[in-house]
Amino acid sequence: MSRYFNITDTIYDITEKYPDTISIFVASGFEHLNNPVMRSTMGKTVTLEMALSLRKVNQEVFIQKLEEVIEGSNPDLSTGLYAAKKETGGDIRIEGVLPCPIRLPLLEKFTGWFDSVKDTLDYQVDYNLKSANLGLDDVKERIVSANGDSDGLSDLYLSAGFDLFFDKKLMGQYREAGVFEDISGVGQMNPDFDNEDISLRDPKGQYAIIGAVAAIFMVNTNVLGDRPMPESWEDLMKPEFENSISLPMRDLDMFNAFLLHIYRHYGEDGVKKMGKALLQNMHPAQMVKAHIPKGGNPVPAVTVTPYFFASMVDKKGPLRPVWPKDGAIISPIFLLSKAKNKDKLKPFVDFLYSKEIGEILASNGKFPSTNPLVDNHLSPDQKFMWVGWDFIHNNDIGELITHTEELFYNASGKESL
What we know:
Layout: H1 11-17, H2 22-27, H3 36-41, H4 48-55, H5 59-73, E1 85-86, E2 92-98, H6 103-117, E3 125-131, H7 137-145, E4 156-159, H8 162-166, H9 172-176, E5 208-220, H10 221-224, H11 233-236, E6 245-247, H12 252-277, E7 278-281, H13 284-287, E8 302-306, H14 307-310, E9 319-322, E10 328-337, H15 342-352, H16 355-364, E11 384-385, H17 389-393, H18 397-412
Parallel strand pairs: 2-3, 2-4, 6-7, 6-8, 10-11
Antiparallel strand pairs: 1-3, 4-10, 5-8, 5-9, 5-10
């Protein structure tokens, strides 16, 4: 089933061989594996198959998550090379953080395409495309170490992340200096993202967007009680939902997007009300099991989650996905390219903007694509909430993220994570 381990291997053997998988086990409800003693005792007696069966976790999905983490930090077994990383001191550097559920098919398409064209290029290319669950800390460190010199940056970035791309201490300073240019050449975006309600096209022609991570929410009908079914973000701000909602606060891209959108459309008061509504932090992978009580802990009535994870919910269970009437909050997947190297970057941008990649985004991972040739399979009422480019250009996004976090946590009465 996996080329790294067998379903009959013990949890101890898997985590000892691949320590990075511990975080996936913990995020999926196996909190005791954070304890080294528990891993070395109970972990030696429980197989992966037994553990997943006990928790009623989908084997295929969970194994894919383990493989994504393993491949993000271990060499490819067939080639001896890092599956998502190629560094030879090339002329062009590409850096990306790919959404976890679709990292493998995206990476497979990218490496296959690159192998087919690399001999036609008269320049060397380095790339590092890793899974989003590994975070952006190392990317940010390299941007900070560039110390204002754009030559210290990679030439092409692919990632979600409002703070990464707009914080003036990070990429924002280079944006203001005109270092980047949208070279996609796409004349018309997908109408899902370019209509009378929304436009993801950067009017300054600097940032390109290939797709979006859309956040909706799920309602636990067993916990909802006699409260009316919430249909919008605004409904979640009502007093009856105080201390009732879980949020993916460790998923900083999504959490920052959530705060910025609530602030943009509902002001400081909206952020405070959402803070009061907070019950607990929850990783998106945990949310599909959010209806299962654990250790006497309260179960959230509502969980905010990426659309992909909501699609994994057991339809026979009590969780009901809700696409908010005021729009799914989006965290755009940005494609940022240096203007001075646009001729060399153009083939890569065209590939990442292609219909083939767009269909992987939209179909495999339910991350709607901006490519106009892609059918995102969305109904007319599945609209998006977007902060807008004027809001981005007229605000210090880094400072605003810090400000909204303070408002949120002060209102929640809980410490930030």
